[in-house]
Design a protein that fits this description.
The protein is of the alpha/beta class. It folds into two domains: 164 residues, Rossmann fold (3-Layer(aba) Sandwich); 150 residues, 3-Layer(aba) Sandwich (Rossmann fold). Helix content is 42%, strand content 11%. The chain contains 14 helices and eight strands. The strands form two sheets. It has a four-stranded parallel beta sheet with strand order 2-1-3-4, sandwiched between helices. Strands 6-5-7-8 form a four-stranded parallel beta sheet, sandwiched between helices. α6 links the parallel β3 and β4. α1 crosses α2, α7 runs antiparallel to α14 and α11 runs parallel beside α13.
């Protein structure tokens, strides 16, 4: 949260007078774990005893998810970058599922006089849980403030940044470093396993704008495009074209519902059976090393690789890399210029081009329609 004084929306960020970092949130102690999971699963009728079982991943790390600490690091990086480049834009932070809660932070921003807010979600790709659900969260917060008689700010969610150079380049470095960390005798034959969160096939197929719906939808297309960019650049830097595949992790749904596959552990088994010499797990679907990276990759998948006798490394996520902070600044200034009627240069790599600024009707739909802010169909224009 910010303690900066109110300044008028002037300069290169105008009309925006604040940036909101919007994230998932996580527990910060053993007593937080079950209440946190109750927030995450609210409305699904999951018994408290079952949540205690699910929470064992967190209890194994002292009940602390690293995501909040990582968001604090990103906040510091953003504020440092903004200050060094003369961008007078306060940065706030709110979460979906744990303190600081989004509604509380939106209330604070309104009290601070913020009237036009740019929003960065810590999810780089199109999907219901990674985009529209955050827009629904924003609409819920605004609805609460409206009931309280608060003057509502306008919120604009920044475009998907999966293919922004400032997001992709740190991951390329991470893969190169991980390959170098493998024993020399297995390095050349290493496979790259690009990992992201598995989601139901139905959610994947309807991700992105309606015209992109279909097998895998925008969610899979975007990940494949980023993976290809990284693999090609790694080949340029190392002189070796490593085989690669997009795989999935962190499935949490009922067994009878089809989710994206293959799972990372199944993929490691397949690589071992095919005679691969080693693997590098590349978590391109995640901004930082939160619990699903630390447990599903660093613990579970790494144990599977050890069981198989398959040398494996896990490459770094972007986290608070200065290049990512720079990318966020560029995204803010890009969107601000568009809102002023200008035509700024848009940064992207790969083949898909820049993502849309406003989510259209039917983009990443929920099973049951709910109001969502920061889109064409927003009730809070």
């Amino acid at each position: 949260m910010s303690d900066q004084l109110l300044t008028p929306p002037d300069g290169p960020a105008a009309p925006y007078d604040a940036l909101l970092l919007l994230s998932f949130g996580g527990p910060e102690g053993p007593d937080d774990v079950v209440p946190f999971l109750e927030n995450v699963t609210r409305g699904r009728g999951i018994p408290r005893e079952r949540l205690k079982e699910v929470g064992q991943h967190y209890f194994g790390f002292g009940g602390v998810s690293p995501i909040n600490a990582q968001n604090r690091e990103l906040l510091d990086a953003l504020r440092k970058d903004f200050s060094e480049h003369g961008l007078d834009l306060p940065v706030y932070w709110g979460n979906r599922n744990w303190a600081p809660y989004l509604t509380d932070v939106m209330r604070e921003m309104a009290a601070d006089g913020r009237r036009r807010i740019a929003v960065l979600a810590t999810s780089a790709y199109a999907s219901y849980s990674g985009c529209r659900q955050y827009r629904e969260n924003l609409a819920d917060a605004l609805a609460t403030l409206a009931e309280e008689g608060v003057e509502l700010p306008r919120v604009d969610k920044l475009r998907h940044y999966f293919n922004h150079p400032g997001f992709v380049e740190p991951m390329i470095d991470g893969v190169v470093d991980s390959l170098a960390a493998l024993p020399e005798e297995v390095r050349a034959g290493a496979h790259l396993a690009f990992t992201t969160h598995s989601i139901p096939n139905s959610a994947a197929d309807t991700s992105g704008p309606v015209e992109e719906h279909g097998e895998g939808g925008a969610y899979v297309k975007q990940h494949l495009d980023v993976a290809r960019v990284i693999a090609d650049e790694v080949a340029v830097r190392t002189g070796v074209q490593h085989p690669w595949k997009l795989v999935y992790q962190s499935r949490s749904g009922a067994p009878h519902i089809p989710w994206l596959e293959p799972d990372i552990c199944d993929h490691l088994e397949a690589l071992h059976e095919a005679g691969a010499s080693a693997a590098v797990m590349v978590p391109i679907g995640f901004v930082s090393d939160h619990m699903e990276v630390l447990y599903d990759l660093d613990t579970e998948a790494t144990a599977k690789a050890a069981e198989l006798g398959l040398p494996v490394e896990r490459s770094a996520t972007v986290g608070a890399d200065p290049r990512f902070a720079e990318a966020v600044r560029e995204l803010v200034l890009e969107r601000a210029a568009k809102e002023r009627g200008e035509r700024p240069e848009e940064c992207w790599v790969g083949t898909l081009g820049q993502s849309h600024d406003l989510c259209a009707v039917g983009c990443c739909p929920a099973r049951e329609p709910r109001p969502a802010a920061a889109g064409v169909d927003s009730p809070y224009a």
